[in-house]
Automatic annotation (TrEMBL):
<dbReference type="InterPro" id="IPR016633">
    <property type="entry name" value="EarP"/>
</dbReference>
<keyword id="KW-0648">Protein biosynthesis</keyword>
<dbReference type="GO" id="GO:0003746">
    <property type="term" value="F:translation elongation factor activity"/>
</dbReference>
<keyword id="KW-0251">Elongation factor</keyword>
<comment type="function">
    <text>Protein-arginine rhamnosyltransferase that catalyzes the transfer of a single rhamnose to elongation factor P (EF-P) on 'Lys-32', a modification required for EF-P-dependent rescue of polyproline stalled ribosomes.</text>
</comment>
<keyword id="KW-0328">Glycosyltransferase</keyword>
<keyword id="KW-0808">Transferase</keyword>
<dbReference type="Pfam" id="PF10093">
    <property type="entry name" value="EarP"/>
</dbReference>
<comment type="similarity">
    <text>Belongs to the glycosyltransferase 104 family.</text>
</comment>
<protein>
    <recommendedName>
        <fullName>Protein-arginine rhamnosyltransferase</fullName>
    </recommendedName>
</protein>
Amino acid sequence: MAATNTRWDIFCTVVDNYGDIGVTWRLARQLVAEHGVAVRLWVDDLRAFERLCPEIEPGLAQQRQQGVEVRHWPQEWVGADAADVVIAAFACQLPGPYMDAMAEREQPPLWMNLDYLSAEDWVVGCHGLPSVKYRSVQKFFFFPGFQPGTGGLLREQGLIERRQAFQQDPAAQRTFLQELGIDPAPGSQLISLFAYENAGLASWLDVLAADARPTHLLVPEGRILGDVARWLGADALTAGALQVRGSLTVQVIPFVRQDQYDRLLWCCDFNAVRGEDSFVRAQWAGRPMLWHIYQQEEDIHLDKLDAFLALYTKGLSSGAAEATGGLWRAWSAGLPIGQHWLAARKHWAELQRHAQSWSLEQALQADLATALVQFYRNWL
């Protein structure tokens, strides 16, 4: 039996504004578009979802967007029949009545916990293993990842080819940027900045402002804006703001839908990203990048950072690997990164080549949606 014509439920609780809903919204659309399954996406915060999909009506309990049935996940569960495949995104707890509905099915559903992305070695050993059981229903671990033996990364069909064609078409890039009101000066390096609050930002902006080469910094609305405003000496920044300090032009842009954000990353020479969704999309952009990992208690996020760096910097020269590691670790610790940025710039051509090859290497693995569908087929 194929996955086609099956019903899938994806449950998402919005914890960090956009990361959780960003991943599940991409996954839901891809399952519908490429695998022919019916998807209900249950979301507890439609206001946050609206930023990614402006067509969303936050007051509706049920609506259809881009082929996906979007359901509001209320605090007081009103009941619903259980699907053939149930995905609890990022270990969210399913409603008790829904779990009962799963157990009451004649054929219990496949129940998976779609976990957070990690490059740690133990992920390969745990991926696909049984987890807890609720009555007759067994839950399984499903781990996205960068190595064979994991669930891979979200990647739509033809994504790499579309990205390459776009990056080889300067006219298409100019048109896209102009549509967002972005007009960088000739010869400027274009950098995107999407990050959590970070005390280390000022030192980076100081270096960019003093650089001989002009930089156009694009800052989508988000949590880092307060730090940018303090460095500029501004009270507050909103979309449309544009200020120049030395060689640095800072432009605040509106929060954009996911396909636009992808192309924005493709246009930029360097992308600073955060969390999980934008982190993966920056890798598909094939450009040098900087990851602001989500902070966790007891600094366990730094273990995850080191695990990814160990994979990502393989094949780099010792100097480039050291500069990359220094930059990323300082950034995620909130330390000044100006000197680390200058160290990385000394290896720029190598870092550009490496970002391209890393993207192509990761694209050799099955994508996350395909891996989920294959897991379901094997389970049957």
